[in-house]
Each structure stands twice: as structure tokens, then as C-alpha cells.
Specification:
heterodimer; A: 248 residues; alpha+beta; Ubiquitin-like (UB roll); Fumarate Reductase Iron-sulfur Protein, Chain B, domain 2; 5-stranded mixed beta sheet; two-stranded antiparallel sheet; B: 223 residues; mainly alpha; 3 helical TM bundles of succinate and fumarate reductases; 9 helices; 74% helix; globular; binds protoporphyrin IX containing FE; binds iron/sulfur cluster; binds FE2/S2 (inorganic) cluster
Chain lengths: 248, 223
Amino acid sequence: MKLTLRVWRQKNAAADGAMSTYEVDGISRDMSFLEMLDTLNEELIVKGEDPVAFDHDCREGICGACSLVINGDAHGPERTTTCQLHMRSFEDGDTIDIEPWRASAFPVVKDLVVDRSAFDRIIQSGGYISAPTGSAPEAHAAPVPKPDADSAFEHAECIGCGACVAACPNGSAMLFTSAKVNHLNVLPQGAPERETRVLDMVAQMDEEGFGGCTLTGECATACPKGIPLPSISAMNKEWLRATRKVGR
Amino acid sequence: MTRTLWDSTIGKKTVMAVSGLIMLLYLFAHMFANLKIFFGPEEINRYAHWLRTLGEPFLHYEWTLWLVRVVLVAAVVAHATSAYQLSRRDIRARPTSYVHKRRGATFATRTMRWGGVILGLFIVWHILDLTTGTVHPGGYEHLRPYQNVIDTFSTWYGNVIYLVAVTALGFHVRHGLWSAAQTLGVGTATRDRVLKPLATGLALVLTAGFVSVPVAVMTGLVS
Ligand code: HEM
Ligand code: SF4
Ligand code: FES
């Protein structure tokens, strides 16, 4: 396949960026999107140019490091991560626009790399349980009803990639935060911090400068792990309950 | 707790949802009452008088009406203030747009802000027209809504302003009612299958009810 790529290039956080056009040839339909970018970068290095910086790690759809808005879609046209997107989703001769996640809480570091440490700080504010560590507890000591276990697993799938923020017209982190809150709040292990968790994580989310939710639904459409939109409603319910209960 | 509510994006959105639902409740009552115009001047003019004596003898003449007005003004102010502040925040959170544009959300979702502004302006005009009579075409007569409504809908601009506003209302309620359910924590995957069509249905009923009045005047059904 022969492709035209229009890629966001930006030297550093302070510099102005712009879209630059590149041609790549000899792309196999079986390559992943990131392998296609590797091919481009090899050519750029041979020519003595600065390779395109982009985030990646596991390349198997589980770590949440990869990003990229591809033709306006976070993680591209398929419901998966960019690393699991394959070139067979494109046609020979296509022009592909590649941009970084856009949100003021995710500033661009270089080219397509953004700083997602705001997510880490949201997790630090309440995305944990106060469990006694040491020997593993007996598995049946804390019974978990099947629907709760399913819900916890569904939300635990969130890999913290930030596609939800990138897709949201308000740069809102409600879907991510709701995945993390609901994951622990439905479980007995998460019960001791049930109220403080949701209050602190939402406060940190606001503190980081993410926007509010207008129920546009773009986040859930973009999420590679299928975190559903009603998770946000479930978090709102937890937040309202905690506000009444804790009274702060 | 009040501070937590107002300082949090979720809390402010809760204020928006509750004030929106209060206005929505009022609008349904208002729409049903308007339909009395189809039963002649006597019926609706008597109703206008009854509204003012509602609550007597416990409450003085017009007190109930003023109570409703105070609640509604408070709801409009709370709703518009939280909408403005949240919108400012949302725009700041996403300062750079993508070079590659994609199709956005539904029309109702995309027009919440401008639709809201249209509704706000309409509320002002509507009060000056049919409550105070300040900008009313033809002689405004207190407690004679039948005649006043016919005056307004006998002008082209009266019809245009009203129809635009009521259409905007339909779209606003379509997204707003479902959104309010999500904001208040009622939404689940199962319930949303009912809530979405319900919001659309109620928005349609509300709009159709309001639209029927100017249409009746324009077609001469009410004169
Ligand atoms: C002063 C004029 C108004 C303005 C400026 C305004 C503005 C807005 C805005 C910006 C939103 C949020 C949109 C979003 O989430 O995407 C909203 C939501 C809403 N509006 Fe209005 N609106 C106005 C009048 C009304 C009226 C008359 C009603 C009554 C039917 C209403 C009912 C609602 C409801 C129920 C919501 C949903 C709240 C939520 O999302 O939780 N609004 N409004
Ligand atoms: S909710 Fe989905 S899109 Fe958002 S960070 Fe988690 S996995 Fe990524
Ligand atoms: S690189 Fe790990 S999820 Fe894509």
C-alpha cells in the first residue's frame, strides 16, 4: 500500500506545531498502525530527519500507552487501541490525518506524545483500597454477588488510555473516572472508602482542568474497552449519595 | 455541602438538571392550560382569573401566582448561571480542535447552548408580550388572554418568534430530559432504552401542544 500521511509535528511543549505531509510506500495490510509509523520513522532517520514521536508500550492492547487521533477518531476507525489497529482498515492511496489527544489537561510534550499524568493524580486521590497486605485472603471470605463481580470486571477493563478525553468535545474525564470509581465502589473490598473515593477523585478530576459532561456520548463510542456511557450516571449516583452522607 | 455542589462539575450539573426539571414541570402545566383556548374565550379567560384566586382564602389574591413566578425566576437564573459557567469550563478544557473534523453528536445535543440562549431571549419577549403587555401588538387587555393571544398570532413576527422558540424547546427537552436522568444517577443500560424514547416522546407532545395554538389562530380555527 502507498499512503499519504499528514502528521502533527511539534518540537516541544512550548513550540507551535503544524501538520506535515509524508508519503510512505510498501505498507503491508497486515502491519499494525504503529508498525506503519515505524516504517515512516526508519525512512526519516535514514534521511537524517527527526522521527515522529508517539507513545506505545505493550503493543497488545492492554497497557493504555498508545494514543493518536486518526482521521478524527481516537484510536482510529475500529473499536480497539491504535496498536491493535491494522492497515487493512485503510485503502491503498488513502490520506490519513494523525493528531495527538487534544485537551488542556493533556498538554502536548512532543509531536503525538501528550502528558497524561493528570490521570495518575486522579488515581492517587482515591483509586485504591486499604487492604491488609501479606498473605492472600481466603477467596470465599468476602462473597461478591455475580452481577457486582461482572460490573467490577467490566469497569476494571479501563486501561487509562485517555481516548475518552480526546473524543469528548469538552475534554471531560468523566468516563475514565467513572470506570475507576465504579470498579472499586461495587466491591466489598472497596467499601471502606466508598464515599471519600468518589468525592476525592471527582474533585481531583475537576482540579486538573477537565471539562464537564454534556452526555454527548463520544467517549463511550471511542473507548477501546467498551466502558459504557451509563457508567457516568452510576458515578453521579455515587457522588450524590456520598455528598448527602458525608455532608461536605 | 452547598459549596461542594456548586464547586463541583457534577454538583453544578445537578443544579442544572433540577432547575430544568422544575421548568419542564411548569411547561407541561402551561401547555395543557393553553389548550383551553380551543373551548372559547369564556373558558380560558375564566381560567386566568382562577389562577389568581388559587389558594384563597388561605392565601391572598395572586399570592400563589407570585409564588410560582418566584420559583420559576429562581430556576431560570440557577439554570442559566450553571449552564454558562459549565460551558465556559468545557470550552477552556478543549482549546484546540482537531484538524480532521468528524460528524458530531445529534442535532439536539449540539444545539443545547444556542437553543438555551434562544429560550432565554424568548422568555423575556414572551413576558413583555403576554404578561406585562409592554411589547404587545394591539391593545393589551389584562385578564383577557384569549384576545391577547389572537393579537400576537395575527402578526407574522409573533408567529415566527414563537415557532422558532417552541421548536428550540423541543430539541432542548429531547436531550435535556434524558441528560437530567443521567445527571441525577437514574440512568442504567436497561433504563436508557426506555428513557431515550420517553424524552423524545414527551418533547414531541410538549412541542405539538404549544404549536397547536398559533396554528389554530393562523388557520382561523380560533378567532
Ligand atoms: C434560560 C434559558 C436556558 C438556557 C441558557 C439553557 C441552557 C442549557 C444548557 C447549556 C444545558 C446543558 C446542555 C448539555 O448538557 O449539553 C441545559 C440542560 C438542560 N435544560 Fe436548559 N436552558 C434554558 C432553558 C431551559 C428550559 C426552559 C427548560 C425546561 C424545559 C430547560 C431544561 C433543561 C434540562 C432538563 C436540561 C438537562 C440538565 C442535565 O443535563 O442534567 N432548559 N440547558
Ligand atoms: S474509559 Fe476507555 S477510553 Fe477512557 S481511559 Fe479508560 S479505556 Fe481509555
Ligand atoms: S501500546 Fe499498549 S495498549 Fe497500545
